[in-house]
Specification:
Length: about 210
């Protein structure tokens, strides 16, 4: 018996179907914008004072690198909710921090809140897609603590000036030079976005 001949029409239809499937798959993979379901759940389900990740239980999040927000996340209501909750969390008397980074509330995105010691009234401000462009000035060795390492402090060498680029919560791009203690907070918080903790850089670490 001979091998049956292929039905040309059926063969073409199968090819066409396969191409359509591949196109649909490519389109769905290409649509990378937006928060993940887990991120949405963390942002929407948490109280206004969020759970703060600590070592070593949350090391998977605290040691991961954070990514920039895309256009979809920048436009989203979730971003404004997250910023409001991060500000509420870091200023809560239970934390009493001077800065917080998004990984500390379980979101591996490049967002930090910093208390601006160099501005009148020392306002807390949020910075989105923040990057340190360069560090200059003399190195200072000062005490640091971290909301994610409760009960500990360390003496950490830091540059006295940080040159940073970021988006405001409204999406305006800014580059600026920050000096003094604010520059040190920016370095501490931006380290969190790269999975680095102050204990990695400290000259010495001690229990409070
Ligand atoms: Zn910290």
């Amino acid at each position: 018996m001979r091998r049956p001949r292929k039905n040309t029409y059926l063969c073409c239809m199968k090819k066409l179907l396969r191409i359509i499937c591949l196109l649909v798959l490519a389109a769905s993979c290409g649509n990378r914008g937006g928060w993940t379901a887990r991120e949405k759940a963390v942002i929407s389900q948490s109280d206004s004072v969020m759970y703060v990740c600590t070592m070593p239980v949350d090391s998977a999040i605290l040691r991961a690198s954070s990514i920039d927000l895309g256009a979809d996340e920048l436009r989203s209501a979730e971003l404004q909710t997250l910023i409001a909750k991060m500000l509420k969390t870091v200023t809560d008397p239970s934390q009493d921090g001077v800065g917080i980074a998004a990984p500390q509330v379980g979101i591996n995105r490049r967002i930090v809140c910093v208390m601006r010691y160099d501005k009148p009234g020392r306002p807390f401000e949020a910075y989105v897609n923040i990057h340190i462009d360069s560090l200059t000035g003399p190195i200072v060795h000062g005490p640091e603590g971290c909301l994610s390492l409760p009960g500990m402090r360390g003496i950490v060498p830091r540059s006295s000036t940080a040159h940073i680029s970021y988006l405001t919560p409204e999406g305006t791009p800014v580059s600026e030079q920050v000096d003094g203690y604010s520059a040190i907070i920016f370095q501490h918080e931006c380290d969190h976005l790269d999975g680095i903790l102050y204990t990695d850089r400290a000259d010495s670490v001690f229990v409070e």
